[in-house]
Write a structure and sequence with these properties.
By secondary structure, the protein is of the alpha+beta class. It is built from seven helices and seven strands. This is PH domain-containing protein.
Length: 176
């Protein structure tokens, strides 16, 4: 299990500055007006740094200053990209991951269509990997755990002559 964790690829992303370009421009323009621009610049910077995203081979994690959410890739049913006209020009956008129970929106990521394609490929690969693991998983034994060992012990007693044929046949029925 530890080997899987060490070979797992993890990519970290955050909201692009391009997603907040209008806020940065407006705050710089408002600096001469009693320093309001400095307060606005601080607020835009804080909003820009608020969201962090981690992508691994098995799940996606969204983290902000209060909450952290995880979605396993195999649970994602649909990936959508939303962009307004400014985001489209700047090549940033929001990616929404839909599951049967909820959805998660990843805000202001660069090259959202390329990222969507990569996510869809990772989702497909993870689902195929799980199918392979299920196919290779050994079948459950048709007897209770320890039954085979107890039967072997009984057979050994019978072979040594410590248990009569009648008792052996009677006890063997409990194991079949």
């Amino acid at each position: 299990m530890d080997e899987k964790k060490s070979t797992q690829k993890i990519v970290s992303l955050s909201t692009s500055w391009k997603n907040h370009v209008l806020g940065y421009i407006l705050s710089v323009l408002l600096i001469p007006l009693f320093g309001i621009g400095l307060v606005l610049l601080y607020w835009v910077q804080k909003k820009h740094k608020k969201h962090r995203y981690r992508f691994s081979d098995t799940h996606v994690t969204s983290r902000d200053d209060k909450y952290q959410r995880n979605i396993d890739l195999v649970n994602i049913e649909k990936v959508e990209v939303q962009q307004d006209w400014i985001q489209e020009k700047m090549d940033v956008g929001d990616i929404t991951l839909h599951t049967s129970a909820s959805s998660m929106t990843l805000l202001g990521l660069e090259m959202p269509h390329k990222l969507k394609d990569l996510l869809e490929k990772a989702i497909y690969d993870q689902k195929e990997r799980l199918k392979q693991e299920k196919a290779n998983k050994p079948d459950k034994p048709d007897h209770k755990p320890g039954t085979k060992e107890r039967m072997d012990y009984l057979t050994g007693l019978w072979q040594q002559g410590l248990v009569s044929d009648e008792d052996f046949k009677k006890e063997r029925k409990h194991f079949e």
